[in-house]
Amino acid sequence: MSTLRAGWVITQRDLAHWVRQPWTPIFGLLFTIMLLLVFGFLFGGAITVPGGGDYISFLLPGMLALSMMFGVESTTTAMAADARKGITDRFRSMPIGSASVSLGRVGADMANSAVELLVLLLGGLVIGWRISSDPAPVALAVVLLLLFRFAVLWIGIYLGLAFRGDGATTAVQVLVWPIGFLSTAIVSAETMPGWLGAVASWNPLSATASAIRQLFGNPTGITEGPLADGAVWLAVAWPVLITAVFLPLSARAYRKLRR
Amino acid sequence: MATDHSLTADGLRKRYGDVHALDGFDLTVASGTIHGLLGPNGAGKSTAVKALTTLIDIDGGTARVAGHDVRTRPGEVRRRIGLIGQNVAVDEILGGRQNLVMFGRLFGLSTADARTRADELLAVFGLTEAADRAVSAYSGGMRRRLDIAAGLILTPAVLFLDEPTTGLDPRARNEVWQTIRQIAERGTTVLLTTQYLDEADQLASRISVMNHGKVIASGSPEELKRQVGGDRVTVTLPRREALVPLADRLAAVIGETASVDAEAHAVTFEVGAGVVALADIVRALDQLGIAPEDLVLRRPTLDEVFLTLTEKEEVR
């Protein structure tokens, strides 16, 4: 109980940041919207989707998944900054449960990402993206996106705790790009050379992107392979696996602060 | 039973690879006193504070803070201490009041109680006017005061301050000193680490000097200074005068050996009572018909206390 309450207090601290500095989350959103417009309209004309379909309808679910993955940056940055400034040590010297600090981060980042998703969904509808399925699969798609964000969050918490220097943050900021692009978020794996397409298909980001395309009734760019039938299952399995690895690693990194 | 405000450490050990950050660290701090832990960078001061505030596991030894063992009852210890680390550990985006309310709630206060306590502390620390401004707009001294306030929410039995004035300008430093004195007057035991003898001297009733992970000397500021000799008087002589013969003559007058700094063309004497020696030296210079370029009376610096104490340690 005290752990949950303390986690909630730490979450509220971040929510209060939005009120104090609304531009930080707004710029984050504008950046994702800019990416959406760049790919949707600038590059999109030159991209065809295997299996047919409109590129904007293919792209938007990919961008949703990509924005969830990019969330790893803000998680890592926030954790590393608190550790570096001594705020984590102050929390650790207080009578609160050891999971409180991470739970607070989870609460704040999930809230942030939920708002981001909502804005991107509405923005997508404005630029011509359409949902052609029922409410139940749409709800499942949103759950899968948040599940993916949840998994990525634990990667961020681990990296922020284990590598506290500015280097960690910079490394994450650089690495999310190749990892994000080496997926089916923006282009179909079937337009890539065979081996590269195989790597991209096994990217957890691709599982989530493909699954929600199916659930929204959007073109998937997939005509064969494991993602054609099993994307939804993979979009559950990958995040569960990532969480199963990085949640214990995060707990271990937190304990290692005691060294 | 009254709350126990004392602190004892007995043979604490902490190793990082080959480095013995704490190597048999002993310390006893009496209730309600300010104790200075003095030492150069890397002496192990921060490690000692981290061990005593339950932030790190210790490899050996025992420590009790406010009546509880840090190893077996860390939760009880945490309820009774405040930690002010080397960095100002408050949220810079939030306002001062928001910070204190947040930390108050983390200490288990209800939101209403946390607000009341925050307002009390803001008033005590002269931050009421700035309460709603973002901390990033605070001066260095204001930040440090807020940081200290955050460590006092539950009126801790023992407050730990790890180099609280490093990086502050003299005015802000005086504000912080004033604050620390007020805290101790209210009965909180304070353990203060510092690199500056001056700071320990100003605040602490007892000082422990630390080097290589252990305490090498302890006592009141006066006792420590007596151990390293008294005040220093440095006479800088005009370049045209021959340094060594003059140094010898001055030494004969005041009955202390002179240490000669040829480069600065200066002579330094370790003297018991600085003011008396100063008068003797002025008189002697006058008789010799020499006008010194500079004449300085000063306390031993940490370097000197430290060098003297470590030399003694090596001899032993």
Description:
The complex is a heterodimer of chains A (259) and B (316). In chain A, 46% of the residues are buried. Chain A has helices at 2-20, 23-43, 55-85, 87-92, 100-126, 135-162, 166-181, 194-201, 204-216, 226-256. Chain A has one domain (2-256). The radius of gyration of chain A is 19 Å and the shape is globular. In chain A, helix 6 (135-162) runs parallel beside helix 10. The mean pLDDT of chain A is 90. The longest helix of chain A has 31 residues, at 55-85. In chain A, 77% of the residues lie in helices and 0% in strands. With 259 residues, chain A is mainly alpha-helical. By secondary structure, chain B is an alpha/beta fold. Chain B folds into 2 domains: 7-226, 3-Layer(aba) Sandwich (Rossmann fold); 231-298, Alpha-Beta Plaits, CATH 3.30.70.100. Chain B is built from 11 helices and 14 strands. Chain B has a 6-stranded mixed beta sheet, sandwiched between helices. In chain B, helix 6 (170-185) links the parallel strand 7 and strand 8 (189-194). The longest helix of chain B has 16 residues, at 170-185. Chain B is elongated. The chains are: A mainly alpha (259), B alpha/beta (316).
List keywords for this structure.
heterodimer; A: 259 residues; mainly alpha; 10 helices; B: 316 residues; alpha/beta; Rossmann fold; Alpha-Beta Plaits; 2 domains; six-stranded mixed beta sheet; four-stranded antiparallel beta sheet; 14 strands; 26% strand
Summary?
The complex is a heterodimer of chains A (259) and B (316). Chain A is an all-alpha fold and 259 residues long.
The helix/strand order of chain B is EEEHEEHEHHHEHEHEEHEHEEHEH
Q: In one word, what is the shape of chain B? A: elongated
Shape of chain A: globular
Question: What ranges of chain A have pLDDT less than 50 throughout 5 or more consecutive residues?
Answer: none
Provide the structure class of chain B: alpha/beta
Query: Approximately how much helix is present in the residues of chain B?
Result: 25-40%
Count structural domains of chain B: 2
From the coordinates shown, what is the CATH architecture of the largest domain in chain B?
Answer: 3-Layer(aba) Sandwich
Q: Which pair of protein chains has the largest interface, and what are the residue counts?
A: A-B, 27 and 31 residues
Average pLDDT, all residues of chain B:
88
Q: What fraction of residues of chain B sit in β-strands?
A: 25-35%
CATH-assigned fold name of the largest domain in chain B: Rossmann fold
Physical arrangement of strands within the biggest beta sheet of chain B: 6-7-8-3-9-10
N-to-C span of chain A: 27 Å
Q: What quaternary form is this?
A: heterodimer
Strand runs of chain B, count? 14
